[in-house]
Write a sequence for this structure.
């Protein structure tokens, strides 16, 4: 039997509908009790009958987050055959996310990709005939999470975490080198310096955690790529969408990519707009590179906004783009309706097989319609957040939190004058947690660092 | 041509630290055992550093001893200086190290071997392994003699196709000028064993009379000596010790080395083997750490019988004339006379990934391998493997369950798991940082961890086992007692706390002695003052009580991790497992798992290239098979 109690959002994310947060494992009821307050004071979920529903509120410390229904299922009569609590809420994406975070802060761990299904199978709840499907699902979800974990991460943050990891490993390596070769390597004055370093790292991690709460740490939302040939109006479109009063949020300049990203909210739905315009040039060869870059972006997109310059006839660039978006979710924007149009909405719809909306970036017409169309598509599940991306982000935040806690333990050990070898344990825990965020494993890092930095041995 | 043909239960090839432990274990477990060596005068030879133990290696020796091995007892009989390293750090990293009288060490081990019933020592070079149908039948010697056996342990050390090199000189000899073993590599390869070539080195030995000790710092042994073996009476080892000496290289030393790098076989490419990073030659250090102004040199006696001194830190493969020139720039070595040159040695060893955690070859039943031939380095690492290989060879003949120590039980478990699971590119040395549960794997509690196991396999006698049980009970009883005794803010207690700069107790809210003991400024021994009803218990038991309670929080955290670890470790995988049949596994994982044939899910999870998702998939597959059955 598993010991870890896990939690995740069990439903697909949608802005209006009901979401379910599922907690499963030996402490599921205890975790739920820590965050749930019933209408009736003093009612404890642990003491309630199995397969009952309870009405109340989720609290994060003293702050009420949402009004919820809680379903209790004691194992083995649950999906995973473990003690399970499901929290039904209807507060939309952000509230759902905050409830999950609260649950995680109170003793549950984020479920690994495919973990509920894995547990359900291992505990005999899923039919034998579906074993292969279960294995496929686990592998696919993990693969997706792995690919996304790092690419979702804001570039500046990536390098900051790398730096912190590096400093932590240096500290641990110094201790281990001294333990291994005490006659050559001294730890005189080392702890004071380490404590200062850790102070700096902890401040940095606190900032990251605060940013994570403001949604600034990690890019979330429907990954939307704007395509179109040069001068079709992609940049103006992006600026317009990002410049509206509802379209706040931040600018994320990815260091690993040459594209500009904006996070916006339209009709309560988060979008990550990726502009491929910045890689244009009049030089033919560079133009080609630009197009292939844009293609790459489009490959990984949840949604494509294809901008057509209606004031000019379609050219070979357009043909190429139309060919490419055939098997993708896409909306076509017929731009420059302020000028005489070469092609009509109907003709373009016929040609592309996609929804077409006539807009004018210059005169700001057609945007309300665009918003409505996008909301419709989301509500009908034609486009959606990838849940795995979403949970990846929460996992990363958990990793940050754990790293922070481990470093705090190191600092406490230092203040209690614990022998240095005790410090390594928590240092390496923090190193490992931060590594998860970057998609890096620990392996022989420490031993390698010891030998590369210290001259040891006789 | 008629040849000698004999029958034994077990053949051990090699009489170094691995061979000795393997042969003793087999013979003591009641098997007729023959041990071969190229020179009977070189049993348990220490061809490099003249000491046993040190950081993490001391742990290995303690564990060998708790399992019923010989190394700890042998060094207790023959040491000439002893030191507990890291005594100012936490108990998990205390490490015992003793300087040995090399000749005494060899002689004592030989005496033990020769007086063990069922153990036969024989000089000769093993040339071939005889294998039929994937099963070992015997060993053929260079003389043509055939020794049929039920199991064999290869402990050939660094002797296989060994080559010693310094400067332009290259000689096909084993360590210390001994005869190399030239045939065995080919026979192993013919039987499908993958070989590799490693390299290591040793510094020069010099004449004590040519050294100026006034320019060096004297390094003394500890005042109170702690023996290695749990069976050795501590009083019996309190004796006069000899000193070691510390000196330093100079800028001139480094200049001479840099000027002659082109004559070093390491840099000219004359050496092909991979050397260890933790044991660099002085020329390596000067090149890699160019900004270091000086390097430490430890001058250590080779024994009481000789004037030879070991130059710790000055290992080299530079030419003879350069060795002289550079050594003479080291403080106190201005007039040094060399007795034996420094040299590098390269040798064949096996790729240990071909072994099960029992140290038996996956593809050759009955053939075991231990020590430097497995790509490890160090006397202690070798002895640990020799003991486990010997025990398993014997257990297999006796048709009993094999012994595999896992990473949460012993450094020996970490060592062997690393060797047979991880791809290593240099001779492997133990380090405390390799043990993820090191707070549990202390050198002080090796007997608590392993005596029971040693007793079960038959290497720990009844008397020692009973003593262990008694000690265990005393510790438990005393810990329970301390957890139950509450002290309040009485005057005696408050005075005591004040004396030790410890926060006073509030009136009323008492504390147990166990809780009080956890304070950094207090310990079990100090608390005697406010614990009038304390029973008298032996010092070693008292130390266990102190450590167990003082670090209880940390220890419990690691025990929890061990619980998780054990779950995967206890899920065994059969060697016939067909990974290609598991559809959900990634291609890379299938290849790795097919090649490795891991013994457990836990081991599988440590193979590089096998992801956590692959492990989940394997678990689902196993469940599927279980339900289908």
């Amino acid at each position: 039997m598993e010991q870890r109690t896990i939690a995740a959002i069990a439903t697909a994310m949608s802005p209006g509908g009901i979401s379910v947060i599922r907690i499963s494992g030996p402490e599921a009821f205890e975790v739920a009790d820590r965050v749930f307050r019933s209408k009736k004071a003093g009612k404890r979920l642990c003491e309630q009958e199995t397969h009952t529903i309870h009405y109340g509120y989720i609290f994060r410390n003293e702050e009420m987050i949402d009004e919820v229904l809680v379903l209790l299922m004691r194992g083995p009569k649950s999906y995973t055959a473990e003690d399970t609590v499901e929290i039904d809420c209807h507060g939309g994406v952000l509230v759902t996310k905050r409830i999950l975070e609260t649950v995680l802060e109170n003793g549950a761990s984020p479920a690994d990709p495919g973990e509920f299904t894995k547990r359900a199978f291992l505990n005999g709840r899923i039919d034998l005939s579906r074993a292969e499907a279960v294995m496929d699902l686990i592998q696919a979800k993990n693969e997706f999470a792995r690919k996304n974990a790092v690419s979702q991460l804001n570039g500046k943050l990536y390098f900051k975490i790398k730096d912190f990891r590096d400093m932590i490993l240096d500290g641990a390596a110094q201790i281990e080198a001294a333990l291994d070769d005490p006659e050559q390597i001294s730890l005189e004055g080392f702890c004071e310096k380490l404590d200062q370093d850790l102070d700096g790292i902890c401040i940095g991690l606190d900032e990251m955690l605060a940013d994570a709460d403001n949604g600034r740490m990690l890019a979330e939302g429907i990954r939307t790529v704007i395509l179109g040939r040069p001068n079709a109006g992609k940049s103006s479109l992006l600026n317009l969408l990002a410049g509206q009063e509802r379209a706040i949020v931040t600018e994320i300049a990815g260091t690993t990519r040459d594209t500009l990203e904006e996070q916006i909210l339209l009709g309560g739905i988060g979008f990550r707009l990726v502009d491929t315009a910045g890689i244009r040039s009049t030089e033919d060869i560079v133009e080609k590179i630009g197009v292939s870059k844009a293609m790459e972006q489009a490959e990984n997109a949840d949604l494509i906004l294809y901008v057509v310059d209606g004031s000019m006839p379609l050219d070979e660039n357009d043909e190429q783009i139309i060919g490419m978006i055939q098997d993708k979710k896409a909306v076509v924007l017929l731009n420059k309706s302020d000028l005489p149009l070469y092609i009509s909405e109907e003709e373009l719809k016929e040609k592309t097989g996609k929804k077409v909306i006539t807009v004018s970036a210059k005169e700001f017409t057609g945007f309300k319609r665009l918003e409505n169309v996008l909301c419709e598509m989301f509500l009908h599940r034609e486009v959606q957040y990838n849940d795995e991306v979403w949970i990846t982000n929460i996992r990363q935040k958990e990793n940050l939190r754990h790293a922070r806690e481990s470093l705090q333990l190191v600092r406490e050990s230092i203040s209690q004058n614990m022998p240095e070898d005790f410090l390594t344990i928590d240092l390496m825990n923090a190193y490992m947690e931060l590594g998860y965020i970057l998609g890096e494993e620990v392996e022989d890092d420490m031993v390698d660092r010891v030998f590369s930095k210290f001259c040891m041995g006789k | 041509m008629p040849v000698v043909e004999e029958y034994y239960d077990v053949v051990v090839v090699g009489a170094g630290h691995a061979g000795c432990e393997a042969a003793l274990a087999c013979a003591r477990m009641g098997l007729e055992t023959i041990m071969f060596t190229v020179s009977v005068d070189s049993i348990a030879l220490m061809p490099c550093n003249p000491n046993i133990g040190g950081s993490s290696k001391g742990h290995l020796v303690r564990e060998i001893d708790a399992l019923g091995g010989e190394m700890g007892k042998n060094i207790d009989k023959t040491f000439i200086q002893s030191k507990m390293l890291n005594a100012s750090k936490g108990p998990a990293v205390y490490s015992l190290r003793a300087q040995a009288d090399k000749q005494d060490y060899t002689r004592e081990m030989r005496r033990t071997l020769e007086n063990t019933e069922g153990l036969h020592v024989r000089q000769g070079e093993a040339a071939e392994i005889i294998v039929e149908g994937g099963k070992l039948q015997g060993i053929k010697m260079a003389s043509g003699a055939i020794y049929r056996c039920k199991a064999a342990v290869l402990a050939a050390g660094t002797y296989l196709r060994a080559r010693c090199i310094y400067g332009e000189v290259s000689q096909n000899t084993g360590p210390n000028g001994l005869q190399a073993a030239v045939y065995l590599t080919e026979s192993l390869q013919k039987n499908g064993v993958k070989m590799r070539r490693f390299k290591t080195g040793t510094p020069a030995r010099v004449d004590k009379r040519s050294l100026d000790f006034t320019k060096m710092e004297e390094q003394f042994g500890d005042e109170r000596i702690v023996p290695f073996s749990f069976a050795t009476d501590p009083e019996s080892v309190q004796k006069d010790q000899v000193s070691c000496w510390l000196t330093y290289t100079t800028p001139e030393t480094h200049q001479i080395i840099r000027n002659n790098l082109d004559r070093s076989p390491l840099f000219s490419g004359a050496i092909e083997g991979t050397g260890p990073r933790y044991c660099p030659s002085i020329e390596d250090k000067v090149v890699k750490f160019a900004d270091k102004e000086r390097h430490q040199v430890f001058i250590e006696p080779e024994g009481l019988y000789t004037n030879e001194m070991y130059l710790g830190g000055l290992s080299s493969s530079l030419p003879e004339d350069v060795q002289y020139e550079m050594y003479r720039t080291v403080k106190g070595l201005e007039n040094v006379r060399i007795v034996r040159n420094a040299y590098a040695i390269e040798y064949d060893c096996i790729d240990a990934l071909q072994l099960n955690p029992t140290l038996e070859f996956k593809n050759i039943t009955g053939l075991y391998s231990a020590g430097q031939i497995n790509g490890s380095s160090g006397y202690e690492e070798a002895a640990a493997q020799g003991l486990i290989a010997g025990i398993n060879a014997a257990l297999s003949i006796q048709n009993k369950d094999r012994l595999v120590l896992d990473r949460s039980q012993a450094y020996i478990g970490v060592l062997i798991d690393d060797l047979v699971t991880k791809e290593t590119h240099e001779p492997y040395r133990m380090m405390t940082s390799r043990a993820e549960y090191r707070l549990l794997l202390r050198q002080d509690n090796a007997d608590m961890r392993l005596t029971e196991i040693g007793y079960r396999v038959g290497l720990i006698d009844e008397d020692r086992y009973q003593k262990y049980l008694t000690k265990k009970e005393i510790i438990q009883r005393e810990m329970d007692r301390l957890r139950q005794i509450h002290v309040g803010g009485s005057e005696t207690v408050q005075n005591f706390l004040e004396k030790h700069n410890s926060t006073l107790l509030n009136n009323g809210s008492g504390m147990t002695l166990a809780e009080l003991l956890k304070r950094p400024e207090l310990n079990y021994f100090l608390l005697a003052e406010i614990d009038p009803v304390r029973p008298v218990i032996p010092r070693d038991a008292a130390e266990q009580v102190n450590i167990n309670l003082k670090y209880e929080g940390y220890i419990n955290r690691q025990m929890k991790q061990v619980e998780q670890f054990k779950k995967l470790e206890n899920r065994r995988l059969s060697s016939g497992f067909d990974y290609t049949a598991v559809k959900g596994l990634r291609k890379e994982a299938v290849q790795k798992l097919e090649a490795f044939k891991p013994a457990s899910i836990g081991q599988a999870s440590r193979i590089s290239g096998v992801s956590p998702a692959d492990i989940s998939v394997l678990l689902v597959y196993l469940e599927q098979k279980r339900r289908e059955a």
